[in-house]
Fold these 3 entries.
Entry 1:
Amino acid sequence: MADKTVWNDEDIIADALGRAPDVALGGDHGRWRLCRWRQFVGAYNLPALPDPMFVVHIAGKPSVRTWERDGWSETTSLPGCATIVPSNQPTGWLVDGELDVVTLSVASADLKRAPAGDQFKRMRFAFSDPLGVALTRQILGELYAPRSGERDVYVGALVDALKAHMLRGPVSAGTNDFPTSAFSSYRIHHIMNAILERPEAEHSIEELAVQAGVTPTHFCRIFKKATGVSPHQYVMKARLNRAQHMLEQSDASMATIAEALGFTSQSHFTRAFRQFAGETPSDFRRRGRDVPS
C-alpha cells in the first residue's frame, strides 16, 4: 500500500469510498486529474485533500448533503450542481441513493496564477454552474466513445476549457443577463436554488414559469426532465427536508412547523410527512431523541 503522505486527491477518495473511480484521466505530469465516481447510500468522511477539487454532480438521486458545523446541510446537491472542495479541509458527505459525480483536481501551485484563486480557500457547496456541467458531460461522452487520435485531441481541448473555467471562477450574472426568449439551464438551477433557500414560499407554477421565461405547461415538462420530479413534488420535498431538520434541532410544535413551512394545516403536514418519511413527525422526533449520543 502506498504511503498516505504522498497520496493525491484521488487516492484519498478511493480509500474513503472503498473503490476506484469508474473513469480516470490525468495530464501535465500529474498537475490535473479528472475522475468519475459512482457510489451508493451512506455517510462518508473525506480527509483533507492536498489539492483543491471541482466537483460536478451529473446524475443519481437528487439528495446529497455536506456536513456543516452542527449537522447535515439543509441545502442538497442535485444533478447539475457544482461544488468546490478546498485543500486541507476535511469534509463529510451524506448520500441518499446513488451518487454520480465527476471530480477535477488541480495542483495547488497552479492556483497562485489563477485570477480567482481565493475562491478555493473555502467550501462552496451545490451552486449553479451550467457551463461547468456542460463541459463535464461532453468530456464524459467522449471518454466512453471509441478512442482515436482526433478524439484524444478533442478531449484534451475540453479538459483545458474546464480547467480554465474552474480557475477563472464562476461569473456572477443575474437572470436579466440572459435572453428571455429562450430557455436556459441557468434558469432552472436558479429556480431550484431559490426553492431550497425558501421552501415555505408559495412557488406557484405560474410564478416559476415566469422566472424561467416559458409557459407553465412547458416549464413543468422541462423541470421534470431536469430533476426527475414535478415542481410541486420538488417544493414538497424541500419543505419536508427542512421539516426533518426542525424536528431534530428544535422543540417547535407541529402546528408551528406546519405554518412556518407553508402547509395549509397541521393535518396536511402530518399526512405529507408520513408519506415522505414513512412515519409521523412526532414519531420521527421521538425516534431521533431515543438514539444514544
Entry 2:
Amino acid sequence: METRRLDLSQHRCPMSLLLAKRTSKSLAKNEMLQIKVVDKASLSDMMSYFEQHLFDIQLEHADTCSLLTIIKK
C-alpha cells in the first residue's frame, strides 16, 4: 500500500490539526499517512490526538520541518 502525504507546512493550529484529523479519518486499516509540519504547537497537538486515537506514530525531524507518519490500526 502506498503512503499518502499531507503537506501542512503552510498551516498553523488549529487548521493544521483539523486537516490532519479529517485526512486520517479516510485511512484504511494499516494505511500510512505522512504529514509534513513546521509549527511545533501543531505537531504537539497532532501527536496527542493520534496517540489518544490509537494510531502508530513515527516522528522524523529535518532541518526545516518535522515528518509525522501515522498508521491506522
Entry 3:
Amino acid sequence: MQILIWMGAAAALIGFLGLVVCIIKGLRARRSGLDDTQMRAELQRLVVLNMTAMGISVLGLAMVVAGIMLR
C-alpha cells in the first residue's frame, strides 16, 4: 500500500500546482485590463482548470487516505 500513498501524494501535489497556476493566471488576467467579454472568456477557461486541479487533488488525497487505511 506504500505505492498507493506515494501515488496519491504525487497526484495531490500535481493538483496543488494546478491551483497555483490557476491563481497566477487569474491575477494576470485581472491586471491585464481586458474588456468584459474577454475577461469572461478567460475566467471560463480558468474555471475548467480550477475544477480539474481540484478533482486531481481530491483523488490524490483519497488515494493517500485509502493507502493509510489499508496499511
